[in-house]
Amino acid sequence: MSYRETDDWYFGDYSGRLPGRSYSLLLNSVIITLFAQIALTTEPTFDTPSGQIFLRFTLNIIELFFISDYIGKLANSWAQMDYSLKGLVYSALSRYALVDLCVVLILLTDLFSNDSFVVIGVYVFKALISIYFSSFRLVLMRVRFIIFDSPAYTFFPLVLLSIVTYVMAFCIYLLERSNDSAHFGSIVRAFWFSIVTMTTIGYGDVTPTTSLGKVLAIMFGIVGIVCVALLTANILEANAKFNEIESSGKI
Asked: What is residue 11's predicted lDDT score, i.e. its pLDDT?
C-alpha cells in the first residue's frame, strides 16, 4: 500500500517519510497549545471550577491528538512493511516511535505533574523531533549551516563581545565597588550590569553613581552596539551563502 508524499494531511511514519505540510502545521499548533495549557495551569486566576474544566478539556483534546498521531504513524509504518508481524515490532520499537509512546504514556498517567522538568523536557524533545521531521526541516538546515559553516568567522563578534564584557565588569568594579558594594562589590556582581549594558538591553535596575562610571558605561554600550551589528551582518552573510548553495541545488 502506498501513500502520496504530496498529501498535505499525511501523518508521516517511522520509516522516514515526512508528514504533509498541513499536518505539520497542525502538529506544531497542538504543541504550542500544550505549552500554553501547561503555563495556564500555574496561573492562579485559572484556579476556579470553570478554569479547571477548560484546562482539563484542552488537555484531553491534546491527549487524543497525540494518541491518534502515534497510532497513525505506527499504522503507516506497518503498512510500509506489508502488515507483517516483524514489521509491526520493528516499527513500534523504532526510536521515534518510542519517543511518541513516552509522550502518550506521560499524558495518560499522572506519574509526573504537567509542570515538572520531566514532562516539559519530553514535550520539548517531541516538539524538536516534530519540527525536524516536517516541512520546517529546511529552516533547521539553514540555522545549522549558519552556526557550523564558519563559526570562527560568523561568531567572532560574539567572542569579542564576551571579552569586552569581562573588561567592562572589571573596570566598573574598580570604579563603583566602594559606592555600591551590593551590585559592584566584585567582578562577578558587576557582570550583571556589564552584560545588560553590552547587549544594549539596559534594564536600568543597576546604574553607576560616579561620573567616570557613567562615561565608561556609555563608551562600552557603544562598543556593544558595534559588536551586535557585526554579529548580525555576519549571520546575514552566512544566510546569503546558504541561499546561493540552495539555489545551485546542492542542498
From this structure: 87
In this prediction the pTM is 0.66
Q: pLDDT tens digits for 107-128?
A: 778 777 766 777 777 777 777 7
| Beta strand ranges found along the chain (DSSP E) | none
Please say whether the dihedral angle defined by the alpha carbons of residues 152, 155, 159 and 164, taken in this order, is positive or negative.
positive
What pLDDT does residue 215 have?
Answer: 94
C-alpha to C-alpha distances, 248 to 103, 144, 200, nearest whole angstrom: 40, 18, 38
Q: Distance (Å, rounded) from C-alpha 247 to C-alpha 145?
A: 15
Q: Are 46 and 54 in contact (CB under 8 A)?
A: yes
CATH classification for the domain delimited by 153-247, as one of 2.40.110.10, 3.40.50.150, 1.10.287.70, 2.40.170.20: 1.10.287.70
CA distance 130 to 238: 26
Domain ranges of the chain: 21-135, 153-247
Q: Which amino acid, 53?
A: I
Task: Name the CA radius of gyration of the chain, rounded.
Answer: 25
pLDDT band at 89, cuts 50/70/90? very high
Answer for the pair 243, 176: CB distance below 8 angstroms, yes or no.
no
3-state secondary structure of 172: helix
pLDDT tens column, 41-81: 889 999 899 999 999 899 889 889 988 999 999 999 999 88
Conformation bin of residue 2: beta by default, left when phi > 0, alpha when psi is -120 to 50: beta
CB of 4 closer than 8 Å to CB of 10: yes
The CA distance from 84 to 225, in Å, is: 62
